[in-house]
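Two entries, shown back to back:
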Amino acid sequence: MQASLLRRAGRAGRAWLIYRLDQLLTYPPLVQVAVLLLLTAILISAFAVLALAVHPGDAQFPGASEALWWSVTHFLDGGTMAGDPIRLRVLALGATGTGILALSLLTAALASKMGERITDMRSGLNPVVERGHVLCLGYAPNVALVARELARSGQRCTLVVLAPEDKDRIDAALRPARQVPGHRLRTVVRTGDPRNEQALLRVAAPSARAVIVTPPATLSDDDSVQWTLSTLLAMRRVAETGFEGRVIVEARHTEARELLSLAGEPGVAGEGQLAMDIIAADEVVASILAASTRQDGIYFVLRHLLAFDGCEFYIEPLPDSLVGQSFDEVHARVHDAILVGVRTEAGEMILCPAPASPRKLARGDRLILLASGFGRWRLGSELPSSQLPAHSAVPDPTPQHVSIVGFNSTLPHLLRELSAILPTGSRVQVVAGENSPRALPMVEDLSQKESAIQLSCDTRPAAPLMHRGQHEMCRADAVVILGNEDPHDENGDASALAMLLRLRHGQKVSGHRARRVVTEVRDPRSALHIAPRRGDCVVSSGVVAMLLAQVVLDPDVAPVYRELLSPRGVAVRLRPRRVYVSAGSATFDQVLANARARGEIALGFYPDPRSHGQAQARQRLEEGDVELGEDAWLNPPWDTRVPDTEDAQVVVLAHERDTPS
């Protein structure tokens, strides 16, 4: 009977011990460590008391402190029991064995805690402790391009990316940005859903100076809008705790702007206003495609202005010494930079003011400068007096023939842009092939609204027509090849490049060649193995990433780029050298003075007359950038000689209404 009771008690005690150990393992590792340390202290004290009780008056234990020290040393170091007398060995063996067991459990608890931390770091679940950082919500290939531009800016910046995708994959994509020479960019990747408020707090969203919202590339157009809206609503909820930054939203299509803007409107989704800029990718790409059809080199100049290539737009305070002076007076004295406009205290943006404007600069105005960095300009001697050449007139624009091959969401915006900028009497022909049922109503609808140019749609497949060189697009002034925008098609750029090859072959067969060919791709590296030709350019969504980076670092420049990319207003143009200076030796300061006399602002030269070695091209490739074409030289020193080569042109800002094609 007693044996049965003992067995039952033993099983109950064993079950109790296992249950308590199981409960202990459910606690956080720090709690486990604290419990084990407490048990260890109790066991050490128990063996000290046992030693005093079993061996009272022993010379080795003259007092409680000595007994406690004996217990501690045997717990921590089993070797100390080797010198114990025989009478103490049993007790020493028990203390050492218990110590080994306790320390093993303590080590396991610490290892568990360390393993948990390592797992958190690898999975991107640790909180971010930052202020004034740039936060990117969502991941798409453009994020790596934004990181590259932030690195090239040379500004100290921390980029935090929050996305549900694999952390290691995003880290690998951001690695080229950390290879930019002289960069001051830190990148942090965290795993989580940007639509979750707790995830936003984990990446210190309220403390960010700028938040980029970019939908994953794998989502459909409709799903991307819903994802972006949910993210903005979550961000707005978090922003109510004191967000002082700005949200920059990348939308695939212009039509989403109206809905997404409601998330920031006061009194709709919340009480206050959420400062927000919405950049529509199709609108930006369409503007650059349209501008690229008008002149050779326009794309490369715009790309240079959008990228951080050592010459960007900066908005800086007006010094007190310049208050009361005219724009032309200040423009003539600015060295190491080019004054292109003024932002008034009311927020009005005035680019390329009319010459001899009576308006005086007022306190509170800010200068819009093209410079190599913020504050990198000075006041000096004035420009020379203007001396326009005898034959400086620019011929009137002639009607253009533009062929558009393919169909995607950029087409309607491209047609509207071309309708606004092409001279009266121009023709635009869309060769949509199998997408003709979608393109034809769009072309017919716009034809009824636009009478200045002729719009038409060719329903025949473009590929065989171009390959045989029988289509009139081989003799067009400009050909635009639209890319495939399907995010699930990994070889989407191949269709646009295939059309480019067919067009080149058709031009070779027919003996005719379009003056300009503009090809749209998602990734500019797709065209790396196709030899560039003069008049050809490859436009990619990378320009959207460049614009995002500019607005992130200085939201005030957004209206400047919006103006330059709009079909009306101030535009970037290329003019022949003879328009500004006569034949012979001349310097850039004379070009600046003569351009201002024409109501324009000279920015530099195209193409860049300086030679760049293979080292720079290789560095660009390692950074994930491929430039297929010639570059521009903007903001050269005043004493720079004006190139006198046959293809030398001057880059200027001019009002579109006065700008011929």
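entry 2 starts here
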Amino acid sequence: MTEPIYLTLAFHNHQPVGQFSYVTEHSTHVSYLPLIEALEHHPKVRVALHYSGALLEWLKHNQREMLERLRALVAAGQVELLSGGYYEPILAIIPDEDKIGQIEKLNDELETLFGVTPSGMWLTERIWEPHLAKPIAQAALRYVILDDAHFEAVGFESSREMFGYYITEEQGYALAVFPSLRYLRYAIPWQPVESVLEWLREQAQQPLQGQPPRLLLMADNGEKFGTYAGAYEYCWGEGRYMEDLFTALEMNAEWLKTITPRQYLARFPPLGRAYLPATSYMEMGVWSLLTEDGQRLGELRQRLERERRADQLRFLRGGMWRNFLVKYDEVNLLHKRVLMVSRKVHAMRRGRKRDRALERLWAAQCNDAYWHGLTGGVYLFNLRVANYANLIAAEDAAESDEPELRLQTFDLDHDGHDDIVLLGTPLTAVWSPVHGGGMVELDFRPAAYNLYNVMTRRKESYHARLRQAAAEGTIILPTSPTPLESEPPYSRAVRAKEAGLEYRLIYDWHRRCAFLDHFLSASTTLEEFYRAQYAEQGSFVNQPYEIVEAVCDGMRAYVTLQRIGSVWIGEVLHPISIRKTFQFFHSESAFKVHYTLSNHSKQPLELHFGIETVVGFDGGQDIANSALRLNGESERLPLSAIRELEGVTHYSADTVLHNLTLLTALSRPAFLWQFPLETVTLSEEGFERGYQGTVFLHLWHFQLEPNERWEVTLTQSVSQTATHL
């Protein structure tokens, strides 16, 4: 006789801070609402649901009826609601007081909206580190759901040791850990319901050997069931997958019983102890590796899958999540700035102002802008903008209304080299002297906006697939005979939203930021510079600068950086120095940068010298959102164009979306080179191009005699105005 077994289905529903409302609305109609309706039609099917705080806030304003229907399901005992970090942070990388605070905030929200006290939680991207057991337990939760990969990494057998839960602890704080089974995650909803049922029946027929009744748990993203390309029709439309699945579960309830994790935890004992390593699901381990290693590991995994070597696949883990802080300088900077602001906010006197600052701080910790994979989003401009907006607002709230200027020199990004941070109003600035003396962040506090929020163009492991498909002529486009909608979900086909993306795979050899110093040859073209395929003649762009001066009296701040380097003139290397002094003044939304170049050679040098700056306005690829204006003229030019201009003395870049203008004025007329930073990324819908900011190179051609100096001043000012079409 088949022994009864228990099945838990857990659905994680999340939309990031800064998500476009129409995207959330779409997911609601094709994923979240259909699941609620299916549960109403199948009252004997019990599930666990998780909604992140940011999604709950949207639903409260836009889908009150859906929340009322969900409340009825919860009251009936059909749905267990999971807690977690309110704004879906990577718990492992934020301070413990923020870990606990975010969980308690979602606990309180679930109590307010649904009248329940949660027992367990969804862990963001299942990114586990052993120390998490303590703060999770301190937040009054009893369990967390992880992947079976966590257990396999320390020797647990997926075929016989994953059917229940275990107890782990940290410093005596105990926590139950449930494994989510890979087979169920991959099979539901892509394998036929009959195949899934047959597999479940096979598990039920295995002898218990004195263990508690088997629990088979699947936990996965709710968006997989409707939002992913092709999934809605397959799951809820003509495919009827979820209807067939829930019907089958009810028809087989005699031996297959759905249950929530809290119910199982209350009725049955654990399988034993487990101490799990710092890891996540397999794909995250691949994504976190540097490009070449990630590509090799992906190929190895595919080969072992073809050879059906499950005995070896279980030990493939890849890197750990924290490697994203190594892989992307932009992610690391955001993270370290959040840590910096967290200390300020927690030092505030308790009260409403501190509570508001905590809200903005926690929103800045939303995970999606801190990594990149198939669904992650450091390349999604709107998510970076949202995280920085909340970070800047939290920092502003943590300081006095009219803070004096303050300069801090310390290793902000933890790379072993000092950085410089200017704090005050209305501008905040961050320099990385080791990265060419560049300015990597410029915040305008009144608008809570980082004007230098751009991304360096990097090689990603999946780019090889695009190149290969382009060479073979097998890319599926929206205009192809086989449209995107007809491709099955998770198809291996290479899809792209537009033709020619393989020609846009451009990789920078240095970090993109402002006030980087270039020496070009006379033959270098704008196209070569744009494609980062030119010969840099100087030793300055990605080389360290010395901090000569960093002084501040509260009303004025001066930062002077210098490098004594060299420049190639023909085949001869000549010594030359660059000294740049940044001047900021209290309450002024403008600053000056004074450059001095000195020729230490014994010969005159004919130079092509350029100063690179950037601007990061989301939506800048659309002239309706952002524009460039030259020398005070009224004509609006696109920020996303590649162009060369002559005799430029001042120009402005603006954003209608944020009502901001960044004006740059030059003390000497210059050639101006402009080009967009565009990346090619992969999502569920295929390869796509993304705008990440605009680069400006201010270029001068001059001769510098021995021991002679050449000087220029750049002034940048920010105003809350913008032009419109």
